[in-house]
Amino acid sequence: MSGQISAVLGGAGFAVGLIIALGVLSGDEQGRVNLLYLLVLFVFFPLAGLAFSAIFMLRGSGRGLSGLLLSLPLVPPHWNRQIMVAVASPARKYWFFYQTQILAVGFGAGGIVAFIFLLLGSDVSFVWRSTLLDAEDILPLLNSLALPWWFWQGAQPSLELLQQTQDYRLAPQEYTAEILGRWWQYALAAQLFYNLAPRLLLLVAARSIYLRKESVQEAAPKIERSVGNGMNPVPDEGKLAEVVHNVEEKFRLINWAAVPPDCLEQIQHKIGSPQQVVMVRPAAAPEEDDSLRSGPQPVVLVKSWEPPMGELRDFLEKGAGLIFPLDWDNGTVRPVRDAHLHEWRRFCGTLDSWRVLQPVEAA
Predict the structure, then answer these.
(1) Which distant-in-sequence residues (6+ apart) come within 8 Å of 278 by Cβ?
(2) Is 5 within 8 Å of 102 (Cβ atoms)?
């Protein structure tokens, strides 16, 4: 399953990179491509992507772009469940980081394929247009960006080339055929050094880190089994929250997991009818303090197969109540796996005032 998801993400990134690059590189009605647009697509956009990857990796959730895409409604629900079963919890964010690099490498490869295809099949003309900037203003930036490929003389910018390729309405046209194609080496180098190469390096590093984390997690059960033989003690995994099977007569249902209506009806047959059902959007949860701070006991619905996220912890710290992990497929609520229930008990054990709810029928 993991290999299938990697192939889908890589293919999706390639297709998006191909389409976007073809759109930008097709140019205007005269077939001219604005060099400044290329810098945005091949330099600044990839650098922003690298920054976001680092931020997602450092955050508690660490899901990154691949995690966001895999959580979309269009993704088959069984993919998420199998990911959470197959990928050990401590290694999960590293797996998402690894998949994000596959997605980004596919995007970079798609852009380069589109670029080379247009170079071979058409007469690409590169110009630059700006109302506020002159060639002398842009040259320092281009020279700075070209430092990684200082050895590639044909891909170095020059003031003369900038002046000759500035496009404006009254520009002379004698330079079109001879000069306007000279930027292709610079554009190719920018893609290789800012788009593809950094992501390939991150891909290798992310795969190595993920495999190492996964091997450590796989070794954990062996440590637990060794206790019966008088060997090393079981590592202390912390307090496990209490599991309760009933709720108070008056309670509020907080739908953190976007549980579908059919499933809401099924769980109400198990735990009773709430006084209120509150839909909480995780991205906006910190501002929705009233859903926890006042009123009857809150029961927060979460997806059992997803790991507890930092946003959820921030939200729960504002109150006290019950966490209700749910597993469902095609509108039918299913029993929660023991491994998932254990993980949610461990998560709630780190909070002072939260317990895990599992009705008797689903326990």
Answers:
(1) 252, 253, 254, 255, 288, 291
(2) no
Helix or strand or coil: residue 298?
strand
What is the three-class DSSP state of 321?
Answer: strand
Query: pLDDT tens-digit profile of 168-186?
Result: 554 455 544 455 557 888 8
Q: Is pLDDT above 50 for 301?
A: yes
**More confidently predicted of 81 and 112:** 112
* Distance between CA atoms of residues 104 and 200, nearest Å: 9
| Coil vs helix vs strand at 244 | strand
Position 335 pLDDT exceeds 90: no
Residue 11 CB partners (closer than 8 Å, separation 6+): 106
CA atoms within 13 A on the CB side of 282: 16
Cα gap 362→340, rounded to integer Å: 13
Q: State residue 67's pLDDT score.
A: 62
Cβ atoms 304, 333 nearer than 8 A: no
Q: Tokens at residue 316, please?
A: 């729960």
Over residues 188-195, the mean pLDDT reads: 91
Q: Which of 114, 92, 91, 95 is nearest to 103 (CA)?
A: 95
CA–CA dist 351, 312 (Å, integer): 11
Residue 77's pLDDT is what?
60
State the chain's maximal CA–CA distance in angstroms. Answer: 87
Distance CA 199, CA 195 (A): 7
